[in-house]
Amino acid sequence: MQEDILINWSPQETRVALVENGAVQELHVERTLERGLVGNVYLGKVARVLPGMQSAFVDIGLERAAFLHVADVWHRQADGEPPNIARITAPLTPIEKQVFEGQALMVQVIKDPIGTKGARLSTQISIAGRLLVFLPQDDHIGVSQKIPSSQRDELRARLQALVGAQGGGFILRTNGEDASDAELSEDISYLRKAWARIKDAALRLPSMSLLHQDLSLLQRVLRDMMSETTQAIRVDSREQFEALKGFGLEFMPAAADKLQHYKGERPIFDLYGIDEEIAKALGRRVELKSGGYLIVDQTEALTTVDVNTGGFVGARNFDDTIFKTNLEAAQAIARQLRLRNLGGIIIVDFIDMAREDHRDAVLTEFRKQLHKDRVKTMAGGFSQLGLVEMTRKRTRESLAHMLCEPCAVCQGKGSVKTARSVAYDIFREILREARQFNPREFRVVASPKVIELFLDEESQHLAGLSEFIGKPVSLQSESSMGQEQYDIVLL
Q1: Most CB atoms within 10 A, among 61, 317, 414, 416?
Q2: Distance between CA atoms of 248 and 256, rounded to whole angstroms?
Q3: Is the pTM of this model over 0.85?
Q4: Considering just the CA atoms, what is the radius of gyration of the chain in Å?
Q5: In whole angstroms, what is the distance from residue 327 CA to residue 366 CA?
């Protein structure tokens, strides 16, 4: 399998595509203006201490001072207990005895500023790696609660041995459950280097300086996406290529060797038609090469994928036609889940198959394709209704949520009332208003299509209504209005 990573960089947006054997498998987008502050480490300066609120305002160089609550002030725990257990069991030392105005304090953002509220801070530093989270001020070795309890003791012992005498607190993340000792050691080394850089910056830089920023998408490509099968990582910006090369040489030398600066005339994403793939990934319908198609519907609670034969008549008989379509769909669905970054509960409705061996073969192929996904997936068998239920871990916003917003006309429903339905709503509303008020005239302001209906097919009904209420009804077309929108003005 040949795997390439293409990076399209601009000052406002970074786009990354993972291409396997010429087909786009994953898309990642990060916008400069939408990057949050969570995870950033600053050398702050205490601006005010508020004993009444048991909080302090800390200036970290943003528009508004950030907020530090007494419960988020770090203390070393005895007997290697998990961090912050004191906030549950023991009374907290008053904040005025822990910090003072003008004090320089290393802090980390744990909540972004919202509206008029400043960012929320903690003095406990944690640095996230690909497989581990490093807690440099602690010595606690922990394992994610999402990993089955039967495996935790063994994983904790392995991690303890790898950490060794150098110490430091580490928590194994869920996606580190199946990692090898070499991969864990590499992550430990990267995290210790990152902490050394933070400490060095804290000694050199003045107060209100940024000491460490959570990795950008460009840097996460080297940390999270690069694998042994990656042939090349191509970057279309000379400046970003040089910066990424420097980062790679310091932290991930193996990844740095695969970096290439793309100098071609054509935009890098045009090489594999990636913009067309993005457009397709935002649509409901996905065409299959055989003539069949998928319908993908993403809702708040779950995602449904429906498989249809469409115009496929290539096989010898109907059973084979269904089997071939389902096999192709199994591959396409696994790719679409990665491409669209769909997470949570996913229900797949394959076309019903009469033969047991066909069902087994489709399920085997589907699980084989899902196994290529770096995000954790779990797929069950066929239910009594012939559906396959599966889950895919949510890691970030789906592509549709990142690039799109609900339609202003249909409010995200995907359909609008017909012009006739809206016209009849207006009739009812005029009757309601006529019972309460006594205006000289009613004026209906609505979309051109609704007004056209009143002037043509519904003109008789409109005249009858006007006669019934004893008031004239005038019409005004407003092209800026959606089909469901209307106003009834009392004159």
Answers
A1: 416
A2: 5
A3: no
A4: 30
A5: 8
C-alpha to C-alpha distance for 144 and 174, rounded to whole angstroms: 6
Place of tokens 């972004």: 112
The owner of tokens 């997936």 is 377
Token output for 36: 């949050």
Contact 299, 307 (CB under 8 A): no
Q: Which residues pair with 72 in a beta bridge?
A: none
Beta strands, E only, 139-262: 141-143, 169-172, 209-212, 230-235, 259-261
Would the CA dihedral through 273, 275, 276, 282 be positive or negative? positive
Query: Which of 325, 345, 334 has the alpha carbon at shortest distance from 374?
Result: 334
Q: Which residues have a Cβ under 8 Å from the Cβ of 251 and sit 6 or more positions away?
A: 190, 193, 194, 222, 223
Element (H, E) at 191: helix 181-204
C-alpha–C-alpha distance, residues 363 and 381, integer Å: 7
- Provide the Cα torsion 97, 101, 105, 110; round to 10°: 80
Q: What is the dihedral of CA 145, 150, 151, 155, to 10 degrees?
A: 80
Contact 169, 83 (CB under 8 A): yes
How many angstroms separate the Cα of 72 from the Cα of each of 83, 190, 220, 376?
11, 26, 28, 32
DSSP 84-141: TTHHHHSPPPPGGGT--TT-EEEEEEEE--BTTB--EEESS--EE-SSEEEETT---E
> What is the C-alpha separation between 187 and 99, in angstroms, rounded?
34
